[in-house]
């Protein structure tokens, strides 16, 4: 009898992602979930999504998609219940090895794609918060090259690592690839953001205190304002008052986290959400 892999997400005091259908009988297990279909499906990367405390899983699926293996992206809530699933790829072999939520609330996915060239090339895929594709990029040469990890950098670009066979000193070499800032996603974020008419920060950079000014199109719009460090960790949440579309709302930030501790100098990212739309901007705290 053939046994097929099925993605399993186990939540304990740590976050564990595996491929076999087995349950650890340990007292700290909170819940487990499985995802997939009748064929082989695997999760190769999992991250907590800082904007909603859910989870994002990336890997491959043979149960769904266009054929062969397709990139498989699963977004869940904090209890592991799927918010949505997406597949990406063609009729050949495509796979994701790494995923991260980006500063604009979307996702960056890295892995490889065979479909276009007949050999593996690094595949970088950017989606919005709903998993819809914003853009893709292919990197590599005439041999097999794959990405194994991706992170967004403080300038809004991406750093990718994996291996390359097309170039280098031997059969297979470590490949480190840095992209320029993701201006396409920033532009897309602006287009998809009709609720916020103005967002400004002054001074920026700042030492002791800065003022965040924003204005919405409609009065009494519910606002969610949060600040993240460059690792995506939530450090500060604001509960601003109801908005007035005629004048800006002003919120002051003193560079401290939710516990009142002074944060270290560096780059931070402010996300302002209004009626399911969001704007993200950079802050620089200096000392």
Provide structural commentary.
- Helix content is 3%, strand content 50%.
- The protein is built from one helix and 21 strands.
- A four-stranded antiparallel sheet has the order 4-5-6-7, with no helix packed on it. Strands 8-9-10-11 form a four-stranded antiparallel sheet, with helices on one face. Strands 18-17-20-21 form a four-stranded antiparallel sheet.
- With 287 residues, the chain is mainly β.
- The protein folds into two domains: 7-182, 7 Propeller (Methylamine Dehydrogenase, Chain H), CATH 2.130.10; 193-285, Sandwich (Immunoglobulin-like).
- The protein has one helix at residues 183-191; strands at 7-11, 15-18, 31-35, 41-49, 54-61, 70-76, 82-88, 94-101, 107-113, 121-127, 133-139, 145-152, 158-164, 173-178, 196-202, 210-216, 223-229, 234-238, 249-253, 266-274, 277-285.
- Give the count of helical stretches: 1
Please describe the biggest sheet, giving its number of strands, its sense, and whether it closes into a barrel: 4 strands, antiparallel
User: What is the percent of helical residues?
Assistant: under 10%
Per CATH, the class of the largest domain reads Mainly Beta
Distance between the termini: 64 Å
Which SSEs are present, and which pair or pack?
Blueprint: E1 7-11, E2 15-18, E3 31-35, E4 41-49, E5 54-61, E6 70-76, E7 82-88, E8 94-101, E9 107-113, E10 121-127, E11 133-139, E12 145-152, E13 158-164, E14 173-178, H1 183-191, E15 196-202, E16 210-216, E17 223-229, E18 234-238, E19 249-253, E20 266-274, E21 277-285
Antiparallel strand pairs: 1-2, 1-3, 4-5, 5-6, 6-7, 8-9, 9-10, 10-11, 12-13, 13-14, 15-16, 16-19, 17-18, 17-20, 20-21
